[in-house]
Design goal:
- The protein has helices at 2-52, 62-67, 69-91, 97-109, 118-125, 134-162, 178-195, 203-209, 220-243, 248-267, 277-290, 292-330.
- It is built from twelve helices and no strands.
- The chain starts with a helix and ends with a helix.
- The chain has one domain.
- Helix 1 packs parallel to helix 11 (277-290).
- By secondary structure, it is an all-alpha fold.
Length: 331
């Protein structure tokens, strides 16, 4: 008995250094990632600043700029409706549309918090309003992020691979032979989520996520809505490139950057809302074809439009939810 107890004690002591090493490795990894992101943004900003000095003044076309707002409205709605479609499949019943959409739109603003933690926190903190478990809300956000990233990467890389316009050297890797691997990975990932029954996944993980029942983790509705999301981003990018003076050929070639940039910005957890990263990718990618001045203007306009639409859409659904709630109390 003593030998067994001593062996157990030694085993526990042996696991302590491993945990410490894992924590330290994670901390170091975060620091390295932060340095890489900051270095990329700084280098691109410096490079563009050097080119900006020789660029003539840029005046965006008002009509095409306003037209670029409409696809972002489509992005906001399609994201919310895709999440609602996912939730209907996960809980097996229909949720109240306006309160559910308002909640999701509020969570999207949470991505401007450090490490994007505001997104799941907002969903989970208001889960009881929809009579749902907080763990289920967190799981839905995880699935949304997976589909969002897989589709965005695939569509973005595909459109850039087909473009023949020049790009800055630091972005040329996006169109290398790795693009085929990225497309294959995207396709496999989406198919697995659509086909593989949730009972095939590790059950300990499923219990932790609060996912029960049978069937695939996501349905075609979610994939369809998020395909619309990225097509809207592509249209937004094409309209903005044309608005700052690019030809329609430049617009079609550069629009893929507006698809890939939000993905890279989201994956850069150290950048709230992808601030800096998204703009660096768009401006850096476009500068070789339309010039540094128009490229920077297009990147900044895209950020302003997307942020404004996010806020206005949330406020609109919030007002409708409150009005309906007041009317139901009156009745």
């Amino acid at each position: 008995m003593r030998a067994s107890g001593a062996h157990t004690t030694l085993g526990c002591m042996a696991t302590i250094p491993r945990r410490i090493l894992v924590k330290r490795a994670t901390a170091v990894g975060k620091v390295v990632l932060m340095v890489v992101v900051i270095a990329f943004v700084a280098w691109t900003a410096w490079d563009l600043a050097q080119r900006w000095r020789s660029s003539p003044p840029v005046t965006p076309h008002l009509g095409w700029t306003l037209a670029a707002v409409l696809p972002i409205v489509g992005v906001s709605l399609a994201q919310a409706l895709g999440w609602l479609s996912l939730m209907h499949g996960m809980v097996g019943r229909r949720l109240p549309t306006v309160p559910a959409l308002e909640l999701f739109l509020a969570s999207m603003l949470g991505r401007y918090a450090p490490a994007k933690v505001g997104m799941p926190v907002i969903l989970m903190s208001r889960a009881k309003q929809l009579e749902l478990a907080p763990s289920l809300m967190g799981s839905s956000m995880l699935l949304i992020v997976l589909v969002y990233t897989l589709l965005g990467t695939g569509i973005g890389v595909a459109t850039l691979s087909l473009a023949d316009q020049a790009m800055l050297p630091q972005l040329e890797a996006l169109r290398s032979g790795l693009s085929v691997l990225a497309l294959a990975g995207m396709a496999v990932g989406v198919v697995v989520l659509l086909v593989l029954d949730r009972r095939r996944y590790p059950q300990a993980l499923m219990r932790k996520l609060g996912v029960e029942g049978e069937g695939p983790l996501v349905g075609l509705g979610l994939v369809a809505w998020y395909t619309v999301v990225w097509l809207c981003w592509w249209a937004h990018g094409a309209l903005l490139v044309h608005a700052v003076g690019g030809s329609w050929a430049d617009a079609g070639a550069g629009a893929g950057l507006f698809v890939l940039a939000p993905v890279l910005g989201f994956l850069a957890l150290v950048a709230p809302g992808g601030l800096g990263v998204r703009e660096a990718v768009v401006a850096g990618g476009l500068s070789a074809s339309v010039g540094p001045g128009p490229a920077v203007v297009a990147a900044l306009l895209s950020r302003i439009i997307s942020l404004a639409v996010d806020v206005v859409m949330w406020l609109g659904f919030r007002a409708v939810r409150r009005r309906r709630s007041a009317e139901s109390e009156t009745d």
